[in-house]
UniProtKB/TrEMBL annotation:
<dbReference type="GO" id="GO:0008495">
    <property type="term" value="F:protoheme IX farnesyltransferase activity"/>
</dbReference>
<feature type="transmembrane region" description="Helical">
    <location>
        <begin position="180"/>
        <end position="199"/>
    </location>
</feature>
<keyword id="KW-0812">Transmembrane</keyword>
<feature type="transmembrane region" description="Helical">
    <location>
        <begin position="220"/>
        <end position="238"/>
    </location>
</feature>
<dbReference type="Pfam" id="PF01040">
    <property type="entry name" value="UbiA"/>
</dbReference>
<feature type="transmembrane region" description="Helical">
    <location>
        <begin position="123"/>
        <end position="144"/>
    </location>
</feature>
<dbReference type="InterPro" id="IPR006369">
    <property type="entry name" value="Protohaem_IX_farnesylTrfase"/>
</dbReference>
<comment type="pathway">
    <text>Porphyrin-containing compound metabolism; heme O biosynthesis; heme O from protoheme: step 1/1.</text>
</comment>
<dbReference type="InterPro" id="IPR044878">
    <property type="entry name" value="UbiA_sf"/>
</dbReference>
<protein>
    <recommendedName>
        <fullName>Protoheme IX farnesyltransferase</fullName>
        <ecNumber>2.5.1.141</ecNumber>
    </recommendedName>
</protein>
<feature type="transmembrane region" description="Helical">
    <location>
        <begin position="283"/>
        <end position="304"/>
    </location>
</feature>
<keyword id="KW-0350">Heme biosynthesis</keyword>
<feature type="transmembrane region" description="Helical">
    <location>
        <begin position="31"/>
        <end position="48"/>
    </location>
</feature>
<dbReference type="InterPro" id="IPR000537">
    <property type="entry name" value="UbiA_prenyltransferase"/>
</dbReference>
<keyword id="KW-1003">Cell membrane</keyword>
<comment type="similarity">
    <text>Belongs to the UbiA prenyltransferase family. Protoheme IX farnesyltransferase subfamily.</text>
</comment>
<keyword id="KW-0808">Transferase</keyword>
Amino acid sequence: MAMTNEHEAVNAVTVLDGDARDFFALLKPRVMSLVVFTAFVGLLLAPGEIHPVLGFIAILSIAVGAGASGALNMWYDADIDILMTRTAKRPVPAGRISADTALAFGLVLSVFSVAVLGLMVNWLSAGLLAFTIFFYAVVYTIWLKRSTPQNIVIGGAAGAFPPIIGWACVTNSISIESIVLFSIIFLWTPAHFWALALFKSGDYGRAGVPMLPNVAGERATKHQIVLYAVLTAISGVVPSLMGFAGVVYGVFAAALGAGFIWYSVRVWQMPDGDEKMVPAKKLFAYSLVYLFLIFTALAVDGLVSKFMGAAV
């Protein structure tokens, strides 16, 4: 009942003073930056070429689509965002933008991004972008997030689609290589978010979100973190094993994966009920570095390969 009242209160707010910064915040710019980066790497690694102008339009459309997903997520989650310290200051729960405005903003950006990508680049990539927005806003936000502790495992697919979209922008196809890029992010997501959920379990508990630590307990969560860290480390070296990334990349990815596993084991060794949660916070921070460096290394490897191929 309390949660319903909060939701009604948020939706009842009439906002007159939302500024450009508030609308930018609706786009979840930190998440958007990750989406843009991984989509760009997918576009860069794809065989063939795309005109630089069309490439820019493709990345911009993907960025706008990611922002649309963020706005729709904030519209629906305003009632629980207001209950969590990490999200209470977002524009909708803070009352700077109304929920109706956030919904309209998200829908307009969704249609715009998909239409531009389809008309200017190709309709396969546009369809994938539309599906990604739908998956994040409806399948994850509206359905999975509040109904199952596996929410982030299944819902993580939304964040893993950008490199496939970037690849499709160039090739107008989906390949095993782009699926491997998808799998790296997909397998990375649970360990990343469950590390956060360990030291923010109080927030999720107040909001009634069934994150794994709140439902299955810390010990089960730690086991799952180690499992997904191992799977992530393995997936990170697959591009080298498949031949679409070089040996140097493979060694670098293996070292990064070993670090991921090491930090996850430190979390597993952490005593249950540890209030400081230092190992979990370190794993969360390292996981961000890991994903950034893995995709940076893929981008560098791809650029070197294309340069050497052009030289030959």
